[in-house]
Every structure is written in C-alpha cells, then in structure tokens.
User: What shape does this take?
Amino acid sequence: MKLIHALALALGFTAVAKAAPQPNIVFFFADDQTSSSLGCYGHPLAQTPHLDRLAKQGTRFSNAHVSQAICWVSRTTILSGLVGRSFGTAAEPDRATPESVRELYSDLLRANGYRTGFFGKWHAKMPRGFQPADHFDVYQPVGRNPFYKRQPDGSLRHETEVIVDHGIEFIKNQPKGKPFAMNMWFNACHAEDSDRRPGIGHFPWPRAMDGMYESDEIAPPRLNDPEIFNSQPDFLKTSITRERFFWRWNTDEKYRTNMRAYLRMVSGIDNAIGRFLKALEEAGLAENTIIVYSADNGFFMGNRGFAGKWSHYEDALRVPLIICDPRVPTKQRGQVTDASALNLDFPATFLDWAGVKIPERYQGRSLKPVLFGQKQSIRDTLFGVYCGGTKPGMRSVRKGDWKLIKYDVLNGQVRETQLFNLKTNPHEFIAEHRKNQPDLTNLAKNPKYDLKQKEMEALLASEMKRLDDPFRLWDQDKD
Assistant: This one.
C-alpha cells in the first residue's frame, strides 16, 4: 500500500478531500427594530432568550447599520446587492430598475443547487411587472393589515407565528442532501399605522405574549430632554418623524402602554424563532444551518421627540445583527465584534457561504472573514443615503469615530451640515448641553475641526461617486 501511495505521488496524483457540504442559510428579518430592544444588546427588560442564545453561540455585531433607513430600500438593497441610489434612477430613486434586479441573490443560490424559500413581508419597490415568486422555489407573502390572520378553523393567528409556520413546513418538505436558503421576514415590530389605539391596536403582539412587561417599570426615552428636539433642523421638527411621535409617544401613559406592546412584539418574534430552532433540531438540520437575524432599519422609540426612522442619526441607521454559524472555531463563538457592517454586505455573505462567486456589480463585502476571526473588519466606511424632504435629500458617511451628515432638502431651502465625534458625543447632541463639555455638539461650525470636516466631505463625495449616486449636494463638484 505504501508503494502504491509513493507511486501515486511520483506520478503527480494527490488525494482530494471530500468537499464540505454547502451550509443551509436561514435569514430572520425584523421590521423597525433598533438593536437596543434586545436583551443581548443590553435592554434591561426585553425577554429574548432564543436570540440571546444565538448571540452566545455565534457573533453579535455592535456596529451594524443600514445604508438607508426606510423599509423598501433596505429590502431591495439586500435582494439586489446595491444601495438605493445605485439600483434606482434619478427620476425614481427608490424603485429598482429591471437590470438591477434581473438576478437576485436567491437566483444565484438556486442556480448552485439551493432550494430557496421566502415567507413574510416583501415590500420592495420592484420594476413594474416584476414577479417575486419567479425568484424562489417557494414564495408566500404575509403582510399586516391585519396582523391577526384568520385560520381555516376560524381562529386568529399573528403574522409572526404564521411566517414561522411556513418556515417549519418548508424544512419538513426539504429533500435530503439538498441545501436550502430561507427568508422569514417579519412585519413586526412595525406599528399598525391605521389603528392608533395605544397598545394592542397600534403594536399588535402574538397573544401568547399577553401580560408580559405589565408590571415592569418603563423608563422614559433616554433622549427626551425638550432641548434635544428644539435643537434639531427645522424641517425635521415638522417632518413625518415628528408627526408620528404624536401617534405613539407624546404622553407618559401612551409611551408606557405602547412600549410594553412593542416589547411584546419583540418577544413574540423571539418565541417564534425558538419554535423554529426546535423544529430545525428535530429535523437533524441544525448542525449545518447558519442563522442570521437583523432588521430593515432602526427606530427612534421616542428619542429626540421623534418616531419612526427617516434620518441619519444612529437611532435610525443602527440595527441588530446576530450570525450563528455552527462551523466557526470554538474560540470565535460568543464574540462581540465592533466591525462595521452594512445590510449591503448580506447578499455577498450568503453567496460566499455557499461557495458561489460574488458578482462584480455587488457593492457589499462578505462578513465571513470576521466570523472566522480572519479579519477584524471588512470595511472602514459606512455610507448612508435618504431622499426624504425632496431630492437630493440627506447623505452621511462615517469612518472610525467620525460622522458627517448633510441635508440638501426642500428644493434648496435647507442646506445644513453636521459633524460628530461619536466617541465623545455618541448620542449626536446638537446643542451644547453641558457647558463643561463644549465638544458635545455639532462640530461642523467649529474652526478647530475644519481639516476633519474637509476630510469627511471628500470621503462622502468619493463614496457617492463610487456608488453611482445620481445626485450631487449643493457644495459638491458636479463632475
């Protein structure tokens, strides 16, 4: 036998190791959820034991953001691998062009042996005539309005539970030996905008969560000083973010009632995920299944006197991101990383896991090296864009501790710049709240930081060009 082996080596033959099986990928995606609403991210009340366990067994990102804090753009970014100003046009910047979504990441996975499924909230602005069902093996949209779905037996079931029901059915029908990639995109924790009754009217929760948080003391918003609101740009003070504050948070009683309801929605998601994880174990699929949890954008939760998102503050752009990959080395499990990550990176990561070539047009990067401890970070710059308040809208860029936000809205009536050092001013205060801390404010008008502002301005312009942003701001070169 040794002679045969030696002869094989002499002739140039080498043993080929058996290829590792492609991993299954499960992507849970919440709506309107700031990272601080989960137990593993430090919320003092939130009961999220299943997500907390995934974080302890996987990787929790403390610095994950979206490139645009609005539902349909965030979703289309993930499906297409492009930021909003790249997949759209100047005339319709939030609607994807046919070319940009001709082939979704799910199509690439399917072409490489995966069975794909989508269950839940779609809400992506696709080209007219686009059929989502053509891009998945199994496609079952589940919306809100109402959150409670009538079942064949006449009972009502919350959309969160229905979505996971579909996911469990999907794995029960999974062919043996074939990898799968499944999306379960929840409508929770989005409010029911058409029903403004505080509590179960505005934030309907799965009834299994009845009574949770009822006796808990609900602390007021951390950033509820009226001066914080008063210091905001005037157009933000009259925007939809302020309007919806009066729907949800404008009295102490309404705030406490709605916050308890919101947390029940969060726990409802966690409970449903726990049910799915149990089914995955029972099916014998857990050891080769990667679990991803994130959200389409952050949420103000009453901070700054605002509701919703629609801005470039950290409250709106920062999201939870938990990735539990059972294949990573033991020493990497349970890690908390401050590596910058964008929702733009998700489709590249999914393809990398599957061993599929990442298209050159994709603007994100795979997070896999961070998970396996091969790199500390895959990007040093975070780009943000939003077209609210008329075009060009808002843009932001962040690098390290520094963040620049620019507003070019209302047909040129508002043109403002904000510069923050997030290390010294993590809450992005604008007005000077403490006389002994003069840097706790917007530094854009401070001559001391002129060079830093110019550096960040140049970085923003560079990112806008690199990502094919069709607009230019008032003080940028028009190419």
About this structure: Residues 1-17 have pLDDT under 50 and may be disordered. The radius of gyration is 23 Å. The first strand starts at residue 24 and ends at 30.
